[in-house]
Design a protein that fits this description.
By secondary structure, this protein is α/β, with parallel strands linked by helices. The chain has 19 helices and seven strands. It folds into three domains: 121 residues, Nucleotidyltransferase, domain 5 (2-Layer Sandwich), CATH 3.30.420; 135 residues, Helix Hairpins (Orthogonal Bundle); 141 residues, no CATH class.
């Protein structure tokens, strides 16, 4: 489409640098825009009135954030995200001194868009349902990472003064472990408790293995402390309890995320496609749906996803040298989603298990083999998503055999 104006917008926390040029060739304008809802919406209203509601292209160095959230509601604004690395290289090509400021970046964004528009793709937001799932799965992942960080801290503290708790409390990712460590932060505390109380505690937290409970209770009276230094025990136990106090709410929040996602994803039109993938389960089915989105025109073929996600390897050639490595500059959440799903699919998919074994036999390391498996999964997921058909394991295995794939030999 033709645009009435081209805008380069270098965003910041408080003020955004703007470079605007009309299509009629008038002198470019440069100014600052405050990061305030009233200021942003007033500026957009001026653009609508000035250009009569015609399209306005905005080149910006991101595809999400507060500014995008404000601009995406206007139908005449078309956003073109520019990769930060591409802009940095463009800046270096024109300013070899390394100088940088916000107005210059805004001007460079506008020029980059005008000169390389044929290689850029407009950002089209997904429907509300898909965008809600996208935000929920990404924020859930952030909370999970916070939980893992606290679990590692608690484990480190317990190993320094009360290592037996790692066996008696249960998995640190559970509410049972949090309640155990809160009630009995030291070995002396748990050894002063009656067996009946401990037994009642385990049963109240749905621990139904009588053998496991009795083994734990029998070990507690005979356990010897790692250290009896009161300074160490008191200081580390307080630090451990502080971490536990932060961990328990995170566990409950993750459960809330799971409930919200389960309800939303069950109503999503593509839920059958991603639920059919072996090993996806309740966590990765919504994540894969979020990564693929709802706009079928976003990707022309599977190779675009393989490259943009960072799963496809990068080849660097110069003279007689050739170096192949995995891509580092990529959307980490997307790459992580495909990588982790592919690893989870190995126990549930016969061909994925055979492919992994074949790649390991050829000398690949574990993660390199998983990335190669993810490369194949992306082609399958793309085809199912494009044709709106659930995955069929038997059909794919038969295709591998018919084509004489080396994977078929390992299927036996």
């Amino acid at each position: 489409m033709e645009f009435a104006a081209h805008v380069g917008l270098d965003w910041a926390d408080e003020k955004h640098a703007v470079s605007l040029e009309s299509a009629d060739g008038s002198i470019p304008e440069e100014f600052e825009l405050a990061q305030k809802p009233d200021a942003i919406h007033s500026w957009v209203a001026e653009l609508r009135q000035r250009f009569g509601g015609q399209g306005v292209a905005i080149a910006i160095e991101q595809a999400k954030g507060a500014l995008i959230h404000a601009l995406m509601m206007y139908e005449f604004i078309v956003i073109f995200p520019i990769n930060p690395k591409a802009l940095a290289k463009y800046r270096e090509a024109l300013a070899v001194s390394g100088s940088k400021d916000d107005p210059t970046d805004a001007r460079l964004l506008k020029d980059f868009f005008k000169k390389h528009r044929d290689q850029l793709r407009a950002w089209v937001p997904d429907d509300v349902q898909t965008r809600t799932i996208q935000i929920l799965v990404q924020q859930r992942r952030n909370v999970v990472e916070d939980r893992v960080r606290l679990m590692h801290r608690i484990e480190s503290l317990l190993k320094a003064y009360f290592p037996q708790a790692l066996d008696w409390a249960g998995g640190l990712h559970t509410v049972q472990a949090c309640d155990f460590l809160k009630q009995w932060p030291t070995l002396a505390d748990v050894q002063n408790v009656r067996s009946a109380t401990l037994r009642k505690f385990y049963y109240s937290h749905r621990c139904r293995s009588r053998e496991l409970i009795e083994r734990r209770i029998a070990a507690i009276p005979h356990a010897r402390p790692l250290t009896e230094d009161p300074a160490i025990v008191r200081g580390l136990s307080m630090a451990m309890q502080a971490a536990v106090a932060q961990l328990r709410p995170l566990i409950e929040v993750i459960d809330d995320f799971d409930r919200q996602l389960a309800g939303l994803f069950a109503e999503h039109p593509d839920h059958e496609i991603f639920e059919s993938l072996p090993g996806a389960g309740a966590v990765f089915a919504p994540r894969l749906a979020a990564v693929m989105g709802a706009d079928r025109s976003r990707f022309e073929d599977a190779s675009e996803i393989q490259r943009s996600s960072g799963i496809a390897p990068v080849t660097v050639k110069s003279g007689k040298s050739c170096w192949v490595h995995h891509r580092w500059a990529c959307p980490k959440f997307v790459k992580q989603t495909f990588h982790e799903f592919s690893e989870l699919s190995i126990p549930y998919s016969s061909w994925a298990r055979a492919c992994y074994k074949l790649l390991r036999k050829r000398g690949m390391a574990h993660h390199a083999a998983v990335r190669a498996l993810a490369y194949k999964w992306i082609r399958i997921i793309f085809r199912c998503w494009k044709e709106r058909k659930p995955y069929d394991e038997a059909q794919y295995v038969e295709t591998l055999r018919r084509r004489g794939s080396p994977i078929a030999e390992f299927l036996c």
